[in-house]
Amino acid sequence: MTRAVTLPHARLSGFYLFYFAILGILLPFWPLYLSSIGLNIAEIGTLMAVLMMTRVVSPMLWGHIGDRISRRMRVVQWGSFAAAVCFAGVFLRTDYYWLLWIVAGYSFFWNAVLPQFEVVTLRYLGDQHHRYSQIRAWGSVGFIGAAIGLGWYFDMASIRHVPIMLLVCFVALWALALSIPGAEKPVQHKHPAPPISLLLNKNVMGFIAAGLLMQLAHGPYYTYFSLFVEEAGYSKQSTGFYWALGAISETLLFLVMHKILPKTGTYRLFQFALLCSVARWILLDYWVSSAAALFFIQIMHAGTFGAFHAASIDFLRRYVPEGLSGQGQALYSMFCYGVGGALGSLLSAWLWPMSPTYAFAMASGVSLLAVFVAYMTMNKS
């Protein structure tokens, strides 16, 4: 596959920047905002689980549409617009049950956007697919800027400003989506069997199962890390910094991934990420009160997210047929980040009130299980 159109590097990078700037606000500061309006630990955990649950349905639905129309960017553009409109409802009311509908609505569209945009990016890159990490790194820049900048801001201003910051980013994401033409290909119908059947093999299903367990393990971190470090005595600025440190470490890894991946191979990089996860959550539970230890633990995000994501995207590129690329990305997002993320948040909401130690022990345990699943099922090449 070769590039048929000029690579819009800045606009592709800008889309990732604002998409992950939204995540850089949601993960560190949305739980703190929800706490500030009177929601309890269980309600916060449930809302974070809903954010993940929509990934179970929306990516596969929109991936199915994206694989059957000639202009995949239209899916991204309409999804970005609908996410912004739905999120605006947060300004109408702030009670728990209303927020359940708002989170379900905007995340249904927002979660569908990224898998389709990944396909567009890879099509633009063509044979230069190893440059993917250089573009994706701008997503980490967006996350870092949001986490550090707003951490500093919220030490001086009200955490109640979180919704307006998020709305600005949603609107910017939609504007960028409108500016990017699609690297389109004619719609192909080469497969006589039902499309999903081509993905139901031991290698792909083992990868999905291990990825699901990996994201389940991140549940305590994504749901309660901000509250955890605040309870340990850190300021909002420090909270934002430690979130950003994880993103900085993954960004540095992404910048050199085009050199690392050809040497390590997809499988070994994937297993490295899983092993990092086994260690990281135990260390976080025992050493959160040490600033130096927490610094090192957050650098491990380069392994548990950066290496995991790069290996996963390369796995999908290698083992998912071209005509099913959208549904392959959606299947990955649906089960790994959707089912895995939602189960992780729900288990955390149940375990955390008993003890954070129980939640982090669960995270390390399922990470170890993921190592075994990957070893038994995935191609080693």
Q: Can you characterise this structure?
A:
The chain is mainly alpha-helical and 381 residues long. The protein has a single domain (10-186, 194-377), classed as Growth Hormone, Chain: A (Up-down Bundle), CATH 1.20.1250.20. Helices cover 77% and strands 0% of the residues. It is built from 15 helices and no strands. The protein has helices at 9-36, 41-53, 58-66, 72-87, 96-125, 132-154, 162-179, 202-217, 219-231, 236-264, 266-287, 291-299, 301-319, 325-351, 356-377. Helix 3 runs antiparallel to helix 14 and helix 9 packs antiparallel against helix 15. It comes from Aequoribacter fuscus. This is Nucleoside/H+ symporter, Major facilitator superfamily MFS_1. It is a multi-pass membrane protein. One of its GO terms (molecular function) is lactose binding.
Topology:
Blueprint (H helix, E strand, L loop, with lengths): L8 H28 L4 H13 L4 H9 L5 H16 L8 H30 L6 H23 L7 H18 L22 H16 L1 H13 L4 H29 L1 H22 L3 H9 L1 H19 L5 H27 L4 H22 L4
Helix pairs in contact: 1-6, 1-7, 1-9, 1-10, 2-5, 2-14, 3-5, 3-14, 4-5, 4-7, 5-14, 6-10, 8-13, 8-14, 8-15, 9-14, 9-15, 10-12, 10-13, 11-12, 11-13, 11-15, 14-15
Subcellular location: Cell inner membrane
Protein name: Nucleoside/H+ symporter, Major facilitator superfamily MFS_1
Keywords: Cell inner membrane, Cell membrane, Membrane, Transmembrane, Transmembrane helix, Transport
